[in-house]
Amino acid sequence: MATNVTQTGWMTVHGVRLEIVERGQGQPILWLHGEEGLDPGAPFLDMLAAHGSVLAPSHPGFGHSPDVASIDTVDDLSYLYLDVLAERNLRNVTVVGSSLGGWIAAEMAVKCHDRFSGLVLVAPLGIKVGDRETRDIPDIFALPPDEVARLQYRDPARAAVDHSALSDDQLTVIARNREATALYAWEPYFHNPKLRQWLHRITLPTLLLWGADDRFVTAAYYGDAFRTAIPGARFETVAGAGHFPHIEEPAAFVERVSGFMGERRG
Amino acid sequence: MSMRAWFFSENAYHLLPDSKEYDSIRVKLPNRYYDPKIGADLYHRFIDEWKIAEDLGLEIMVNEHHQTATNLNPSAAVVMGALARDTRKARLLILGNPIANRREPVRVAEEMAMVDVYSRGRLECGFVRGVPYEMSAGNHRPTRMMDRFWEAHDLIVKAWTSHDGPFNWEGKYFHHRQVNIWPRPYQEPHPPIWITALSPSSAREVGARGYIAACFLTGFEGTKVVFGSYRERRAELKLPEPALDRFAYAALVYVGETDEEGYAGARKLMWYLESNKVPPQFTSPPGYHPITSAVNAMKGTNPGIFKMFQKPELGALMQNGLVFAGNPDSVYKQIMRMYDHVGGFGHLLIMGQAGFLDHDETVKGMQMFVREVYPRLKALA
Question: The whole model's pTM is what?
Answer without folding.
Answer: 0.96
